[in-house]
Amino acid sequence: MLEDQHNVKAWFYLAPALALLGIFIFYPIVNALFLTFVQDYEYLLGTFDGFTLLGNFKNAMQDANFSQAFLNTLFITFVSVPISVIVALLISAWLNGIKKFQGMFQTIFFLPYVTNAIAVGMAFAFLFNRDFGLVNLFLGFFGVNPINWVNTGANWGHAMFSLVIYITWLGLAFKIMVFLSGLQGIDKQYYEAARVDSASRSRIFRRITVPLLSPMIMYITVTSFIGAFKAYTQVIGMFGQRLGPPGNDKSLITVVALVYEGIDNAATVGALSEAAATSIILFGVTLVFTLINFQVSKTRVHY
Amino acid sequence: MADNNKVEEKQVENSSVEQEGALAEVAELYYEDEKKIKRKKALRMAGLYAMISFFALFIIIPFYWMIITALKTTAQVETSPPLLWINPAEWKFSNFSLALERAPFIRYTLNTVTVAVVATTGTVFTTILSAFAFARLNFKGRDALFMLFVATMMIPGEIFVITNFITVANFGWLTEQTWLDALMAQTAPFMTSVFYIFFLRQAFKTVPDELYYAAKVDGKSDWQFLWRIMVPVGMPTIITITILNAMNTWNAYLWPNLISMKQEFKLVSNGLRDAFSTSAGRPIYNEQMAAAMIVTIPLIIVFLLLKKYIMRGVSRSGIKG
């Protein structure tokens, strides 16, 4: 064990990180709470006009785009997370079952992780282009008339569909990597025992693979819920700062977009407080997700 | 889609077949010969490869569409139905030079590389020192402080961004922004990372205590021990941290967009998005995709070269859960 006490020395080693975390993480947490509860905050002067308990939350929720942003964010989260977790689980299980070309496929499935969300978002927008895109060409083989996914005047449903496909695509890589490394860590004895008991393949998957992988499934579910709830860059990637197809501006706005909008309008009195209130709401929702997940995991996860 | 279903059906069939297969292994006497089992196994493998290839195609197609579009002439781009393949002799490489003329991408790339180098150097340095303190030194409040650090990982970054913007403005890095101001604003908030401290601490913890005491007996100081023993041992993790951090900078969009007050201080993602959003009239898809390629390809090359470190780092980061 480490008998020696190194009090002074330890703080010396920690000093650089502590100073930076103090300024850019710990203080901002406290200050976000402060901003949330002051009235008419002006950031250039640092002045404010008294305190308010719910005023900024009210302002945030009365923002013209708040309900749209919240709805979009919930939609993105509850559609893209389950799909991508299940697909990633299947792909990683399949990958674990092959030997030849495993490395090559692993590399391919990892590619979305190392791509620039803006650049690939632009590529996706063009994939979904009504006249010149691959998606409509493909659908055309089945006799489907060209659909206006992302071009001028595209409706919410179509634009959202293409966005969710993109977000799912972008999120698969990390999940597959984590699941695959989890699968490779499972002791082969379990499978041999199951085979001796002549358990079917799907039964083995449900009764052995999934339970043994459950800590990772849990981790991935929590982080992807939080990640999906913070969707914003992906929307900019596909649709630009307009946050929606031309003629349907801001139809795909998200909660995080509202926070950044507030910062962009920092000079407006109270705008930062509104942004802070929105970010606290965001935190509250992600916290609830996390707690629910932990609650579920108590009965389902086998460590 | 129809093909897909067929394959899936095959999968289901195979699983029941496989059950029989497993039984056969146990009680060979009752069942058919080995040959049949082998054939079924081969069939199952074919199904497996078919499914994997199907999804791999789903991953590859956006890249393919980006590349092939970047090589088309405007007339070829605007053909409906779209052309799936262009004869290499007709590839229009001038799209790349046209894209580069649209926005100072070289400049943006230099900015991004500078920011990545400074932020990553800072992060690695502060991370090594803190991880060492948490992994090796014994001090009052260590566990409480570590818990506090880890707890911040639960908090969404948007909460910090608001105040960090105010802080950076108060430091005078936004008004009449100079190149140095911009660099400071881009890097200062990202000079350390709780997650990387956590990550490196795990690696440092694998260094046996005996080594530490041996070094002490040899009269080595903690500082020497850190740089001569711990850092070399933790090098794979440090390399992983370096790469992941540099990649994050390359992909950063929101913060740089917020705090670069002049066009020439922007990073690649911002430059890319801006260059093709503001132009009125018809978007020029081939140039747009050429620019997207210019931003995407360096990252993919880095990935292919350093695959080992990146993939290991990412899959390990999941195991901590």
Q: Could you describe the 3D structure shown?
A:
The complex is a heterodimer of chains A (303) and B (321). Chain A is an all-alpha fold and 303 residues long. Chain A has a domain at 66-252: MetI-like (MetI-like fold). Chain A has twelve helices and no strands. Chain A has helices at residues 7-36, 55-62, 66-97, 102-110, 117-127, 134-140, 156-184, 188-196, 201-229, 233-239, 255-264, 271-300. The longest helix of chain A has 32 residues, at 66-97. The mean pLDDT of chain A is 91. By secondary structure, chain B is mainly alpha-helical. Chain B is built from 16 helices and no strands. The model of chain B has no long low-confidence stretch (mean pLDDT 86). The chains are: A mainly alpha (303), B mainly alpha (321). At the A-B interface, helix 1, helix 3, helix 4, helix 5 and helix 6 of A face helix 1, helix 2, helix 5, helix 6 and helix 7 of B.
Please summarize what this structure is.
The complex is a heterodimer of chains A (303) and B (321). Chain A has helices at residues 7-36, 55-62, 66-97, 102-110, 117-127, 134-140, 156-184, 188-196, 201-229, 233-239, 255-264, 271-300. With 303 residues, chain A is an all-alpha fold.
Assign the CATH class of the domain at 66-252 in chain A.
Mainly Alpha
Indicate the CATH topology of the domain at 66-252 in chain A.
MetI-like fold
What structural class do the secondary elements of chain A suggest?
mainly alpha
Sheet of most strands of chain A: none
Order of helices and strands of chain B: HHHHHHHHHHHHHHHH
Give the CA-CA distance, first to last residue of chain B.
Answer: 36 Å
Which CATH-level-2 architecture of the largest domain in chain B?
A: Orthogonal Bundle
Number of helices of chain A: 12
Fraction of residues in helix of chain A:
55-70%
Overall mean pLDDT score of chain A? 91
Structural class of the helix and strand makeup of chain B? Answer: mainly alpha
Radius of gyration of chain B: 27 Å
Tally of domains of chain B: 2
Radius of gyration of chain A: 24 Å
State the total count of DSSP E strands of chain A. 0
Q: What is the CATH homologous superfamily assignment of the domain at 66-252 in chain A? A: MetI-like
